[in-house]
Design a protein that fits this description.
The complex is a heterotrimer of chains A (95), B (484) and C (492).
Chain A: H1 5-14, H2 24-38, E1 62-63, H3 73-77, E2 83-84, E3 87-91
Antiparallel strand pairs in A: 2-3
Helix pairs in contact in A: 1-2
Chain B: E1 4-7, E2 10-23, E3 60-61, H1 62-74, E4 82-83, E5 86-89, E6 99-102, E7 112-117, E8 123-135, E9 139-141, E10 148-152, E11 159-165, H2 172-189, E12 201-210, E13 220-225, H3 228-247, E14 255-260, E15 265-270, H4 272-275, E16 281-282, E17 289-290, H5 293-301, H6 307-318, H7 322-329, H8 332-342, H9 347-365, H10 376-387, H11 393-406, H12 410-417, H13 425-438, H14 440-447, H15 453-464, H16 471-483
Parallel strand pairs in B: 13-14
Antiparallel strand pairs in B: 1-2, 2-11, 2-12, 4-17, 5-6, 5-16, 7-8, 8-11, 9-10, 12-13, 14-15
Helix pairs in contact in B: 2-3, 6-7, 8-9, 8-10, 9-11, 10-11, 13-15, 13-16, 15-16
Chain C: H1 9-17, H2 23-35, E1 43-46, H3 48-63, E2 74-78, H4 105-112, E3 116-121, H5 160-167, E4 173-178, H6 184-190, E5 193-196, E6 216-221, H7 224-234, E7 264-268, H8 278-293, E8 297-301, H9 309-324, H10 342-353, H11 356-369, H12 375-395, E9 401-405, H13 421-425, H14 432-437, E10 441-448, E11 454-461, H15 466-480
Helix pairs in contact in C: 2-3, 5-6, 9-11, 9-12
The structure holds magnesium ion (MG) and zinc ion (ZN).
Magnesium ion binds at residues 19, 162, 204 of chain B.
Chain lengths: 95, 484, 492
């Protein structure tokens, strides 16, 4: 599996990272070097091995259905680059 | 009955599947402790977790798990004791984490069944594919600022159940019946308030068409429809659009389409595959969701009677018709109201009064069961008064209207207005004699063979007694007198 | 008076209790040290006023006999922990100006135990790096230099600022986070002790996430005892973190009995890499000898999937990171670069806000999770990870702890590893396997390289058996008697 320029552009778009056209090749090479090295994982026999999803052997803890948080609008928007009347503001989205 | 679209080239069958997002009834959100109540001021029901501040982590709400299991049991579905939360990754202004925590490969609830009620008591089983828990997104407001979209995260992180059906529906009516029935079950269970206006229930509608008997065609999805009417309209428009394309030799593109309820049409939003690659993977902030059979058994033991069972009981033990039973059980409130009215009373009379006068008066006064000035007990009293002959059915209707307008009890009104029915044969006989004496010509005609005049005399007697005469007694006494 | 910055945490604690000096004096000495060490660039934000304020409170608590475990001890907080009212950057441009309205559980625990914050320590951007060369706020410099030249060296990463601050006596201890070796490797590079506890021991709540299934906070100090004290203060169950383990926190300091007789110490043969430098091999051999003479039984063990730990890690960590870092989108906090549309704003913001290494990892992670590649990369890596965890489980049936080198080399110079990311990734070859398995591990300095740079050994343990790890480390520390210090050139 090897990434071409177009795939890198697609991945960059999925990740919402703007990549200049003239940088795509370099990036493709870098990513391919890493992915090529990762290929060695295929040597490992993982037949009937369950993927590791959690490190600790424990059960998921459940919270009681109680209102214990929220109610601080100012703190929520305090760090916003742009806010209006307690809302976050972003460039207008046309649907 | 399925919907068949007759094209120039032949018949087309419509295939519909629904994905309903139902907001879990809970105090707090799925993974945070902030409130879920509708209508709060922007960003006030938001915690640092809901706003996806750096380092914030999810902790699951017990109520969400219980409600999902309860709903699964209500849908006669397989409950999965082991399920996994995944991240669905995409960017949007009202999705603060940049991913939605959802369940992909291993949902909490598997296959189930929902029985829909169609016209004339016909029912049909629709397959449920799965139910999974996931987070709701926030709200983007596009029309409040000239150059900006404003984002409110109050809904962000609210627990949703996504309930996915099999593509088992064949007409807009069936889809409507499905949504109504699902809403009814959710309300019975108390797991979702089913309030479509407030967005507590929204449907994504998948529509495709095919030649009857063929394999499934390519579908289009219309997202976030929030009324039963829109769902039906969207299906009709979309099915016809697809037929038109196919008839002209075209091909359907699998895509997400927006239903514009103002124009009554659907339009393309974006090609689903092209713009989206959700990159699902198990959320490493959470462990798998696990519970034992005892947990499920306890919820099952507390399960309320659901509409289908209630309907059966109404039919089998109360002798109510399938149609009436269907009407009564559709809304839990109505069924409960009816059961209160019917307790220890004549079931048939109770049905008639609830579905007839009571509904009629609610409609007339713009009230609901919750705001009705007449309680089940108050209606019960009316029925009791009819039953014991205190008032006639006709008087009862007048009394009932007044109860709605004044909130007074039936006995009060009857008392105040002196509406008590007269069953005393002496008084009634006297009234009959008066009427006969006043109408010698009519009497002659009657005796001459014009039987129909019996009704006239009946009416006159009732009128003379101010409607209070017991019609049964009048009937019994009148004929012998007329016949001489 | 003695130079207060040379004390260990244990010594300072005892001195404070005995009123030999005040917490304010102790803090003042460290603030002076911080002032004179700007050349190390160990801090992104210094908070001397807050430190003095906290020290004053500590003096009151000390006077009232209410001292916590870390009362009055000046420490550095890696700038990955959110601190209420203090700029928190993760060393990234994208968190420009972000001032949290909340306090991370780990730092809050430390404040409860009386610790004093000197400032927020520099790190690799989003903890992604092994040399502290990826910080938006510039490189952190290692206090150590080679005997032969004055070339500035990397402090290791990602907790490089923490390591540098502790090594240069600016802070008595520092918090670190370890995802694949980010505490242990910089500890080794700077001649200090650093411990990554078992995954789940310290809460992750309020710590900027890199890779959620791997991230774990831990202490960085100058002695094993100090690490034990600080870990006890940091650790603990937190209901706000679903992966936090509900377990008593032991008195870790009490684990330092000095007695490891009969302890079985595993030596994994797969860690003897081809081309391992002779001085690392010798260091390891020496460590084995020390433990043996202290009465431990040395057992050769096999961890057969060791070789695959790094490639698995470099899929899993970027995959999780690609999702964890999606929240940095210019909407709710941090940097925003305006654009023509929402998507344009996102991609400009993220291009300008993330540095090259972070972008590279996000792209790798995005690709590894994308449709058609998930099974081959992410799923495969998680399966390999399960096998690696199995290897350890198997090994711990016969041994109590495992001894390995911490890093394949001593600290290197800036730019020395060139542009090849793979070469840089190899730094974590000995630390990553235990990270993948979630196991506790400690690094402590046990010797010097031929160039006069510190080298570290690593001890790994069973899940939640930090006590045995600490006990073993204590014995090794005593045997090694590592007393070398960097020349304080930065004060010049
Ligand atoms: Mg859907
Ligand atoms: Zn959904």
């Amino acid at each position: 599996m090897s990434l071409d320029k177009a795939t890198v552009a697609k991945v960059a778009n999925l990740a919402r990272i703007r990549v200049e056209e003239n940088h795509l090749d370099t990036l493709a090479n870098e990513l391919n070097a890493i992915l090529g090295w990762v290929e060695q994982l295929s040597e490992v026999d993982t037949e009937n091995v369950a993927p590791m999803t959690s490190v600790a052997e424990m059960q998921l803890r459940w919270r009681a259905d109680e209102i214990t948080d929220g109610g601080y609008q100012q703190e929520i928007v305090a760090n916003a680059p742009s806010d209006e009347d307690g809302f976050f503001a972003v460039p207008k989205v046309i649907e | 009955m399925g919907m068949i679209i007759q094209g120039v080239t032949g018949d087309w069958e419509v295939v519909i599947g629904l994905e309903v997002h139902a907001q879990v009834s809970s105090n707090a959100k799925l993974f945070s402790g902030s409130a879920t109540e509708y209508g709060a001021e922007q960003n006030t029901q938001v915690s640092f977790v809901d706003a996806a501040m750096p380092g914030m982590l999810p902790v699951i709400n017990t109520a969400a798990v219980e409600q999902a299991v309860k709903t699964g049991l209500g849908l006669k579905a397989k409950i999965n004791n082991f399920s996994v939360f995944d991240r669905k990754n995409y960017f949007y202004a009202d999705l603060p984490q940049g991913y939605q925590i959802s369940q992909f490969l291993q949902p909490i609830v598997g296959e189930g069944i929902l029985t829909i009620d169609l016209k004339d008591g016909v029912t049909r089983e629709i397959g449920i594919t799965r139910l999974h828990l996931e987070q709701d997104a926030g709200k983007s407001i596009h029309d409040q600022h000239p150059s900006m979209t404003l984002v409110d995260l109050n809904r962000s992180g609210v627990a949703l159940m996504e309930i996915v059906s099999e593509p088992d529906m064949r007409s807009p009516e069936e889809a409507a019946a499905y949504v109504k029935k699902l809403r009814s079950i959710l309300r019975y269970l108390g797991t979702c308030d089913g309030n479509m206006d407030e967005g507590s229930m929204r449907a994504d509608v998948n529509v495709s068409v095919r030649r009857p008997g063929d394999d499934l065609g390519t579908r289009c999805e219309m997202k976030n429809l929030n009324s039963v009417r829109f769902i039906q309209q969207a299906i009709v428009y979309e099915a016809n659009r697809q037929v038109d394309i196919l008839e002209e030799g075209g091909k359907i593109d699998q895509e997400t389409r927006l239903y514009d309820s103002v124009k009554g049409e659907t339009r393309s939003m974006r090609s689903k595959e092209e713009a989206h690659d959700y990159r699902y993977f198990p959320d490493p902030d959470l462990l798998p969701l696990q519970f034992d059979d005892a947990f499920v058994a306890k919820i099952k033991a507390d399960l309320p009677e659901l509409p289908d069972e209630k309907k059966d009981r109404f039919m089998n033990t109360l002798g109510i018709s399938a149609y009436d039973a269907g009407v009564l059980v559709a809304e839990k409130e109505v069924a409960d109201f009816f059961e209160d009215v019917a307790k220890g009373r004549d079931a048939k009379l109770s049905v008639n009064w609830v579905t007839g006068e009571f509904f009629g008066n609610l409609k007339r006064t713009g009230k609901t069961i919750a705001t009705s000035p007449v309680s089940a007990d108050a209606l019960g009293e009316v029925i009791d008064l009819i039953k014991d002959g205190t008032i006639s059915n006709r008087i009862a209707k007048e009394v009932f209207e007044e109860m709605f307008d004044t909130g007074k009890s039936a006995s009060n009104i009857v008392e105040e207005k002196g509406l008590k029915q007269v069953s005393d044969t002496g008084a009634i006989e006297a009234a009959i004699d008066d009427v006969i004496a006043a109408n010698p010509d009519k009497l002659a005609e009657y005796r001459g063979g014009k039987d129909k005049l019996l009704g006239f005399f009946m009416g006159q007697v009732m009128k003379n007694t101010g409607g209070k005469a017991n019609p049964g007694v009048v009937n019994k006494l009148l004929k012998p007198k007329l016949d001489g | 008076m003695t130079d207060l910055t040379k004390l260990t945490i244990a010594e300072a604690r005892d001195g404070l209790k005995a009123s030999k000096f005040s917490a304010r004096e102790l803090t003042a000495a460290h603030i002076t040290a911080m002032d004179s060490a700007r050349g190390l660039n160990a801090f992104i934000t210094e908070t001397p006023e807050k430190a003095v304020e906290a020290a004053t409170k500590s003096d009151e608590k000390l006077a009232n006999g209410e001292a916590g475990l870390m009362e009055g001890i000046p420490i550095a907080i890696k700038d990955l922990f959110c601190t209420k009212g203090t700029l928190t950057t993760a060393a990234s441009h994208i968190l420009d100006g972000f001032t949290p309205e909340y306090e991370s559980t780990v730092s809050a625990n430390l404040w409860t135990e009386g610790a004093v914050m000197l400032g927020k320590a520099n790190l690799d951007e989003f903890a992604m790096g092994s040399s502290n060369e990826t910080s938006y706020y510039g490189n952190v410099v290692n206090p150590w230099r080679r005997k032969k030249d004055d070339q500035p060296l990397v402090p290791g990463g990602s907790s490089g600022g923490s390591a540098s601050a502790v090594s240069s006596n600016i802070a008595m201890g520092a918090t670190g986070t370890d995802t694949g070796g980010s505490i242990r490797q910089p500890a080794a590079f700077t001649g200090i002790v650093g411990m990554k506890p078992t995954y789940g021991r310290c809460s992750r709540w309020g710590t900027v996430a890199f890779a959620s299934s791997l991230d774990q906070a831990g202490p960085m100090t100058r002695t094993v005892r100090d690490t034990a004290i600080m870990l006890e203060a940091m650790a603990g169950f937190d209901a706000k973190d679903s992966t936090s383990v509900d377990m008593e926190v032991p008195n870790f300091e009490a684990a330092l009995t000095g007695d490891i007789r009969g302890l079985k110490v595993g030596i994994p043969k797969e860690y003897r890499l081809d081309g391992m430098s002779e001085e690392i091999a010798a260091l390891w051999e020496q460590g084995i000898e020390w433990l043996k003479s202290a009465g431990a039984e040395i057992v050769e063990i096999s961890l057969p999937h060791t070789k695959y730990a790094l490639p698995a890690y470099y899929i899993i960590a970027p995959a999780e990171a690609s999702s964890n870092l999606a929240r940095y989108d210019g909407v709710r906090y941090g940097l925003r670069v305006e654009g023509d549309s929402l998507d344009d704003m996102y991609s400009r913001t993220r291009a300008a806000g993330f540095g090259h290494e972070v972008q590279r990892r996000i792209l790798i992670g995005t690709y590894a999770l994308s449709a058609g590649y998930y099974d081959a990369y992410y799923l495969k890596a998680q399966k390999v990870r399960a096998r690696i965890a199995e290897d350890f489980k198997e090994a711990y049936k016969t041994v109590d702890t495992i001894l390995t080198p911490t890093a394949p080399s001593a600290a290197f110079a800036f730019g020395e590893k060139g542009d090849d990311p793979l070469e840089m990734y190899l730094n974590d070859v000995f630390t990553v396997p235990a990270s993948l398995a979630g196991l506790p591990g400690i690094s402590l300095p046990t010797g010097l390289s031929a160039d006069g740079l510190p080298l570290g050994l690593q001890i790994l343990g069973r899940p939640f058996d930090e006590e045995t790890v600490i006990r073993t480390a204590g014995v090794l520390e005593e045997a090694a008697n590592f007393t070398a210090k960097p020349d304080a050139w930065w004060r010049g």
